[in-house]
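Researcher: We're teaching a course module on how sequence relates to structure. For the next exercise, students receive a sequence and then see the predicted structure as tokens, so they can try to spot secondary structure elements on their own. Here is the exercise chain.
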Amino acid sequence: MASGTLAAFEPRKTPVQARATVTVQAISEATIQVLLRHGAESLTTTRVAHRAGVSVGTLYQYFPNKQSLLFSVLERHLEKVTEEVEDACRRARYKPLTEMIKEVVEAFVDAKTVRADISAALYKIAPDVGGIALVKREAQRMRKGIFRLLESAPECKASPDEFAIQIMLAAMSGAMRLVLEGGDSTTAMRKLREQLVLLCQAYMAATTNQHA
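Model: And here is the predicted structure for the students to work with:
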């Protein structure tokens, strides 16, 4: 079902040549700019094409409608967050558990807040463009990366608790969304980063001891 849901929003074709890749990147960036400036309701393929400096016909070669445009932007955003978390998992292997969790949480928060305005805008449109299925797909990737990371933790004497990993990711995502949608200040973002690390460190330490 998830794959079918995603297929309904996917672009018409993937760029192969370098010039086509540049064109698609320009369209994606224009989509973000129009979304931030005018909102999803006023976003149109014509407005995006004009902003990107391409014809509407060129845009339609890749994106059949505005939902496909928004899906593509959301997909890349979520993939980038996942890639940052996966990189953190690779860097943190064999470190103490508290350091592992710190690197993972900070990577997640930093990827989400490097452009907080974009993250907040994408939360609003996600339900209408296959966001639920995309989030599930990327969350599964992150769970796998964190599971492999925890397998290397010196404190872990048994297989990592997959449910605990799922709960930690849910806590990270929920807290992040709460702060971003509230339009909070840079100070609040910094506090979120610090306190989310503490929360996840304490929780994973407790569940690791219970699971041992």
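Model: If you want an answer key for the exercise: The longest helix spans residues 66-91. The radius of gyration is 19 Å.
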